[in-house]
Design a protein that fits this description.
Helix 2 packs across helix 11 and helix 2 crosses helix 12. The strands form two sheets. The protein has an eight-stranded mixed sheet with strand order 3-2-1-4-5-10-9-8, with helices on both faces. It has a domain of about 190 residues: Transposase Inhibitor Protein From Tn5, Chain A, domain 1 (Alpha-Beta Complex). About 40% of the residues lie in helices and about 20% in strands. It has 13 helices and ten strands. The protein is elongated, with a radius of gyration of 22 Å. The longest helix is centred in the C-terminal third of the chain and has 28 residues.
Length: about 350
């Protein structure tokens, strides 16, 4: 695979891995892009190798076991690749499914970027269900070591990620957050001298006008609550923040960008749920490969869309997402690589920002 020598050089400078492991990563990454599934049988079938498919399959399996590495190396890559320097909007969420009777439960932090989340760190939980406060704190501290609090414009999370200790940590770290809460959350500052469900603040308004930065006390923490209800929505959206944001609700709505990311990692892209792996450490390595494939595809799609804008269909939506535009271009290039080596090397050049921090 002479055409991958530049890619191997870039990754070798970025990762403290031996040559054989880097080579295997490249094989898996190329196959993942072409077959659009994490199923190792299909990935092994696409290996560019003289070895039998069974040998390629065993090689791919070994890649995801027996060694560990610092996954946070992806963070500076993402920041450089998308020129993200400040005013970062971080989004925390989970995605989960079952393989047989085993829960696959992933907690992930992404950066909001033009309508989609860019993955920067993740942890596979050992059990099903929601995460503990201690786990969330550990994950967020890991990210903070790489980006610093001063670069964060807002930290967004859904109603699952609440609690007195969690809010205390966020406030102590001075992380500006906007988090959705449940309607029945008890609060002071709505009715004088009483602690009532926060929905009472919304019900007080006869015309149901949006509430912005109303001071309340929840779980002993002084916070600002904002409430709004979109047309056609069954219930109002209630968020709390530790700072007065000009439009907390509008900013919080960007939380949906991580859902778009999950869609790309699943059915619209790499079919992440096809994996038969269940060991958390192996799935975390798989997500590392997926993250590289995703950010590479998205960056190329962004460039291609700037050169030739994506057509908009009659219903007002684009004919193809930026991610799929880049992914399909990479697939086409790899499928006819002997005649498109120049194009492939051009695509590889964008990964030069993937540098190991010294």
């Amino acid at each position: 695979m002479h055409y991958t020598s530049e890619l191997q050089t870039i990754l070798s400078q970025s990762l403290n891995w031996n040559k054989a492991r880097i080579s295997c990563l490249i094989q898996i990454l190329q196959a993942l892009i072409c077959v659009r599934t994490v199923n190792l049988t299909q990935i092994a079938a696409f290996f560019k190798s003289s070895a039998k498919q069974e040998s390629s399959y065993r090689r791919a399996r070994r890649f995801f076991s027996g060694f560990s590495f610092d996954r946070t190396v992806i963070i500076p890559m993402v920041l450089a690749l998308f020129s993200l320097k400040k005013d970062l909007i971080l989004i925390l969420d989970r995605t989960n499914w079952k393989w047989g009777k085993t829960d696959i439960n992933i907690m992930l932090i992404s950066i909001a970027y033009k309508g989609i989340g860019i993955p920067i760190f993740w942890l596979v939980l050992s059990t099903g269900g929601s995460s503990s406060t201690a786990t969330r704190i550990r994950v967020l501290k890991t990210v903070l070591k790489k980006i610093g609090v001063g670069r964060i414009k807002a930290f967004l999370a859904d109603r699952e990620f609440i609690g007195e200790a969690w809010f205390r940590f966020l406030k102590k770290q001075k992380i500006p957050f906007i988090i959705r809460i449940k309607q029945n959350t008890l609060s002071s500052g709505v009715i004088e001298g009483a602690q009532v469900p926060i929905i009472a603040l919304w019900n007080k308004g006869a015309k149901k006008q949006p509430v912005l930065n109303h001071p309340v006390v929840i779980w002993g923490h002084f916070l600002y609550v904002s409430i709004s209800q979109a047309v056609g929505s069954k219930e109002p959206m209630i968020v709390v923040s530790n700072y007065e944001f000009p439009d907390a609700i509008a900013l919080y709505l960007r939380r949906w960008e991580i859902e778009t990311l999950f869609s790309c990692l699943k059915t619209r892209g790499f079919r992440m749920e096809d994996t038969h792996m269940t060991a958390p450490d192996r799935i975390e390595k798989l997500l590392f490969v997926l993250a590289i494939g995703f950010v590479w595809s998205y960056k190329l799609g962004e460039i291609k869309a700037a050169e030739n804008p994506i057509k908009v269909k009659s219903h007002g939506r684009p004919a193809k997402s930026i991610f799929r535009l880049g992914l399909d271009w990479l697939r086409s290039t790899l499928a006819s690589i002997e005649g498109k080596i120049g194009e492939f090397l051009w695509a590889v050049s964008f990964l030069k920002c993937f540098k190991l921090e010294r």
